[in-house]
TrEMBL record:
Catalysed conversion reaction: alpha-D-glucose 1,6-bisphosphate + L-seryl-[protein] = O-phospho-L-seryl-[protein] + alpha-D-glucose 6-phosphate; O-phospho-L-seryl-[protein] + alpha-D-glucose 1-phosphate = alpha-D-glucose 1,6-bisphosphate + L-seryl-[protein]; alpha-D-glucose 1-phosphate = alpha-D-glucose 6-phosphate
A Pfam family annotated for this UniProt entry: PGM_PMM_I
UniProt-listed InterPro entries: A-D-PHexomutase_a/b/a-I, A-D-PHexomutase_a/b/a-I/II/III, A-D-PHexomutase_a/b/a-II, A-D-PHexomutase_a/b/a-III, A-D-PHexomutase_C_sf, Alpha-D-phosphohexomutase_SF, Phosphoglucosamine_mutase
Source organism of this protein record: Lactuca sativa (Garden lettuce)
Single annotated GO MF: metal ion binding
Cofactor(s) this protein requires: Mg(2+)
Source species taxonomy: Eukaryota, Viridiplantae, Streptophyta, Embryophyta, Tracheophyta
This enzyme's EC code(s): 5.4.2.2
Keywords, comma-separated and alphabetical: Carbohydrate metabolism, Glucose metabolism, Isomerase, Magnesium, Metal-binding, Phosphoprotein
Protein name: phosphoglucomutase (alpha-D-glucose-1,6-bisphosphate-dependent)
CDD domains for this protein: PMM_PGM (cd03089)
Highest taxon of source: Eukaryota
Domain Alpha-D-phosphohexomutase alpha/beta/alpha: 94-236, 374-426, 431-525
Length: 665
């Protein structure tokens, strides 16, 4: 496949510029590009003017080293290798599309090529046409953005050809965040060609550098699983109808259909406005009132609302993903100091070498002490995985907060739809603690509301939400889309829910259109409004909110793999096998007086006992049964683990080595 479809590029910068030259420089009409009419976010002190610089330029500024990567060469004008519908359906990953977009990793052949991408984007456009009940003479608009992955540019170009081939306009944003893409379907601003009818985010979140994928949005939110299946089926038909002529025609149409817009400028500026508003909470009439009666007060008020985070020191860790804008274009205009922020430069390259032997030594020592796998050797991002669930990532932002004596740290995943925070003492706000914090803030405003969470949340969280905060905890399934859809469903059947949030760091608020973007903005709002009401003490206002959350002594997640080729599956699917394991476990539990099955549970088997609990469930995507155990002590956790071992050890296709190791500790 690699030989047939790819070429080795020795120098990444030249590969990019070569692609850009071939496909765009001759095609773009400069006068079609919207200029930055509202350039409120200029160069911020020591920082690069993020909104005006491309991913590639930034990477070159930050790192001049040449790297060896394998790039998939375009096949725009030649016939494409035939693919079955099933090959397309394999690209579905829940409500996203994910695949391998960069060649060169053993055992991971390319399946997200440019022609495949072109077909998927064309299929999304056709799906949108049906959904909007428009006829093909209607010119709809689709925006495309991407994170920092090295395959982003070529996939953006291919997707643009696919959209243009259906007769739509394409609005390219370049480096962008997932929430911004959804937002572009809601923003009303003609100068920026908004709102668009649909949006595509090119991302594979925190997965290794060779992967990529797509998330799709309309003004109703992200597409669901059935829509993605429909799009992939359409894509298979479109792909198999490709001819050299149709590919050429798509390229020609793209030349007159693409406009480049700096949407991230308006998105960041909207975030700034939202925090200013939340901190002031005073309307126009009151402004006037204060002006009449106290000139000095009026000036003070303006100062507070323009820079509601003045004096706060907040460090951002973007993990070399797309979240670097947050420091210079959101926090700094709000008055925050962001020195010590790290990994803001978009860089989707894998680690090829350590900058110093000391950093290698420190990293390996840390992995050894925290018993975590040294991921940087498996081809991930240059500094740490951009993932708030990752131990090394959390360690990095914690260290940055402590080293800089900052008030708060915020860390994002690659496409900025997940986040976590760290307070000034180095205490992490992620997983259950992040949910507890958000719940406390939301319940202040909406007493009694239902908080929807994923299935792996702790018993302590339920007690906190229900007993301390007076809300209702609805523990649902894993998967951000499941959680958000459940929040929407509850409201539709008359149960008020204002927050849907996952331990992974995805969080959405009802008042923010259930946009998967709520979490970190709420933290800023809280800090800003505390400051406006005269409270001091940095992030203590946040820490105090979760003081009464009970936390387990031990919390582990073990992922038990199902060998799909094992004879014990008897030709069946891994899902059937996994369900058989869960059924057997249920039966075993029922006969154990020390264990009690959760009376209400929406996913897998959740069991209480020995002062703690465990949950065994099927992964949303992988042939894996993730097992979460939480208990007051290691001894109790081992007892829970042993109960699982006793029930599952006769399933020979299930790899329980991680669990046996855990119970032998
Ligand atoms: O079921 P798992 O394998 O643990 O994966 C579950 C996770 O999958 C993806 O990463 C989704 O974006 C998350 O929302 C979800 O929680």
């Amino acid at each position: 496949m690699a030989v047939m479809m790819g070429k080795i590029v020795q120098n990444l910068p030249s590969a990019y510029s070569c692609q850009q030259n071939r496909q765009f420089c001759t095609l773009y009409q400069r006068d079609r590009c919207v200029q930055y009419k509202h350039n409120l976010l200029l160069f911020q002190g020591r920082k690069l003017p993020w909104t005006r610089i491309s991913t590639m330029q930034l990477r070159n500024v930050s790192n001049n080293k040449q790297r060896v990567v394998y790039c998939n060469a375009a096949l725009s004008t030649t016939a494409v290798p035939s693919l079955e519908k099933v090959d397309f359906l394999k690209l579905q990953n829940g409500s996203d599309i994910r695949g391998v977009a960069v060649d060169g990793v053993a055992g991971e052949p390319l399946n997200l090529t440019e022609p495949v991408t072109q077909a998927i984007a064309a299929a999304f456009a056709a799906w949108l046409l049906d959904k909007k009940k428009a006829d093909s003479s209607t010119r709809l608009k689709i925006s495309i953005g991407h994170d920092s992955r090295i395959s982003a540019q070529k996939l953006q170009d291919a997707a643009s050809r696919g959209i243009a081939s259906v007769g739509f306009d394409v609005v390219q944003y370049g480096l962008a965040s997932t929430p911004a893409m959804f937002n572009s379907t809601l923003t009303k601003n003609e100068d920026f060609l908004c709102p668009v009818d649909g949006a595509i985010m090119i991302t594979a979140s925190h997965l290794p550098y060779n992967r990529n994928g797509f998330k799709f949005f309309t003004n109703e939110g992200g597409l669901g699983k059935p829509d993605i299946k429909d799009i992939l089926e359409r894509a298979a038909n479109i792909y198999n109808g490709f001819t050299p002529e149709s590919l050429e025609e798509a390229e020609r149409k793209a030349s007159s259909s693409i406009t480049k817009v700096d949407y991230m400028a308006i998105y960041a500026s909207n975030l700034v406005t939202a925090v200013r508003k939340a901190s002031g909470n005073i309307g126009i009439c009151e402004d006037y009132f204060f002006f009449l009666f106290s000139h000095a007060y009026f000036l003070t008020w303006i100062w507070i609302t323009e820079k509601p985070l003045e004096g706060f020191h907040i460090v951002v860790d973007a993990g070399n993903g797309a979240g670097g804008f947050f420091a210079g274009n959101v926090l700094e205009p709000l008055g925050a100091i962001t020195t010590g922020s790290q990994f803001l430069e978009p860089d989707g390259n894998k680690v090829t070498e350590w900058k110093t032997n000391l950093s290698k030594f420190l990293y390996l020592t840390n992995c050894y002490l925290s018993k975590s796998k040294p991921d940087q050797f498996s081809g991930l991002f240059p500094n740490h995985i951009p993932n708030p669930e990752d131990k090394a990532a959390m360690k990095a932002i914690t260290q940055a907060v402590l080293d800089n004596k900052a008030d708060l740290g915020i860390i994002f995943d690659t496409d900025v739809d997940r986040s976590a925070a760290v307070d000034s003492t180095g205490r992490e706000f992620n997983r259950n603690r992040l949910i507890a914090l958000m719940s406390a803030i939301v319940l202040e405003e909406h007493p009694g509301t239902t908080i929807v969470t994923d299935s792996v949340t702790s018993d302590g969280l339920t007690i906190f939400i229900e007993k301390k905060l007076g809300g209702k905890h609805h523990r649902f399934k894993r998967g951000y889309k499941n959680v958000i859809d459940e929040g929407i469903r509850l409201n539709s059947v008359g149960e008020e829910s204002h927050l849907a949030i996952e331990t992974s760091g995805h969080g959405a608020l009802k008042e923010n259109h259930w946009l998967d973007d709520g979490a970190y903005l709420m933290l800023l709002n809280k800090l800003a409004s505390a400051r406006a009401s005269g409270q001091t003490g940095g992030s203590k206002v946040l820490t105090d909110l979760v003081e009464e959350l009970q936390e387990p002594g031990v919390a582990v997640e073990l992922r038990l793999k199902i060998d799909q080729n094992h004879a014990d599956l008897k030709g069946g699917s891994f899902q059937d096998y996994g369900n058989a394991v869960l059924k057997h476990l249920t039966n075993k539990i029922e006969s154990d007086p020390k264990l009690e099955k959760a009376p209400v549970n929406h996913e897998g088997v959740r069991v209480s006992g020995y002062g703690g609990w465990f949950l065994l469930r099927l992964s949303l995507h992988d042939p894996v049964l993730p097992l979460n155990i939480e208990a007051p002590s290691n001894e109790d956790a081992i007892k829970l683990g042993l109960a699982v071992v006793a029930a599952v050890n006769e399933f020979s296709a299930l790899d329980i080595s991680a669990l046996t190791k855990f119970v032998q500790k």
